[in-house]
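ARCHIVE CARD
Drawer: 12
Card no.: 0347
Subject: one protein chain, sequence and derived structure
Cross-reference: see card 0346
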Amino acid sequence: MEKVYIFGHQSPDTDAVTASISLSYLKNKQGLNAEPRVLGHINKETKYALDKFNVEEPKYLNDVKLQLKDIEYLKGVYSNKSNSILKVYNYLTEKGITGTPIVDDDNNYVGIVTLKDIVRKLFDNDVEKLDTTYFNVIDVLKGEEVLKFDEEIKGNILVASYNEDTFNKNVKLSSDNILIVGDRHEIIENAINSKIKLLIVTGNGNIKKENLESAKENKVNIIRTSNDSYRTSKLIGLSSKVSTIIEKDNSKVFKENDYYDDFMEASKKLKHNNYPILDSNNKCLGLIRITEIAKKNNKEVNYEISTLPKVLYGSDTNIVQTFSYLVDFISKNFENYTLSIKISNLLVRNKCHLKFSLVVDSKYNNLDMYEKDNKYTLSNKSIEYEIYEKLIDLQRGHNFISKDGSKVIFEFSLYQRQEEVKEINDNEEIEYFDASDKNVLVALNSHNDIRNLSELLMNYNVNITTAGSVNELNELLSSNKTFDLVFLSEHIYGIDNYDIKNTNDFKKAINKLSLVAGYKLEIVLVTLNDYQKENIEYLTLPISKTKLDDILVKYLNED
């Protein structure tokens, strides 16, 4: 079974690594051959967590280049080898393509047929031999089933153009003959008695009752068509199986796991337009057309970033996800576009409007937009756009769409709080003590803050547990584990609308959390603000190592 690698982002933190390990475990249980990997070197916090639980460190994956399976191509585009040449021609015309892979009944790749191959067949007009099916002949000739004994029809084609006496005298018929004939009963009788493979009666000619009875005894296949003998002889060749004209050229074939860059380099040398795509078992998946790739990948991205806040109040993860889902939506709904991205910050009363503006300049898009009150709305929202809008709502932001000629403008704003951050100078030597018997809970709303604080705590060999949401915090507090110290973001709990700046409210919040835990919690508030309130232990961001050491000595150092 083909192996699947599961990994997180390029700079792996504990969340990304453990998620890769967990998902790999689940997928293996479900029958998938999965293996966790990392795209970069793991940090101290992650290594500590893996060692703590005796989990093997995932191997480093140094290659995540774009593969053919990662790009959009014509999936499910292929034709069965038993289809008639005419049917394949109509299929190419319908799809608007110039070639198609040919497969067998088990979807194994057999070859490729192009319009050139079909045109060559038409000009060659070789109707001496036929390899087809009874159904194909009926389909191409728009014929009528009279008698059918065989699925497969193979033999030499003859046209009864002579008079009856001359034909019966000079032409010797056999079981491998396919005869095209009009209303000539003596020739028909002779053909049936010769037990030919197939009799095609043109011009909707009648067949005598006694000849039909004889045909049943001799198991002669019969088809009747309204076409005259001349037209029938011209069309009959197109009823041949497409497998009779396929081109078996493995140089045109690529696997879905082949790298996109390698494919493009090879295609420049081969100079074809159509390339079948196969899986690892030689099963055909579809078709890549060079012209389509060139059209879909003609994209240009420009960006401009103005002044940004020094510290973001919201979740950096949510902001990245919001932006990513919108870009994903754009890439799937526009062709030949230029994308200009502008990120700006407008500061108003210690709050900022973090504004993202994405301008898409394209002549072609798949959007169904309608205007209402000078605002544009999408009627065909995809799952990417639905998630994008939901993320905006969760962050209490706003989004809207506008147009300017060929440009479609997507904008969204997220309200942030900005605080001035003082420079920290931690040159003082710190004597780290051993706190390996202590348990510390780090519950912050930013992954970056969790990582930074955890790395500092590792110097004390303390046992670290992290939480990035309210639910995780409550689950950990209500578990059997006891924490000697809790680092708590003022925003992760919401703190039931308690005013943290108020000493009494803060005490109420601590009491409520202590009730959840079942014991009195020692809580250190991690905040952007310097409250300087009595009985409120806090760390300001960015974290001072000396300030952190003072707190740890106070609460964790028994000496």
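Annotation on reverse: The mean pLDDT is 82. The first helix runs from residue 14 to 29.
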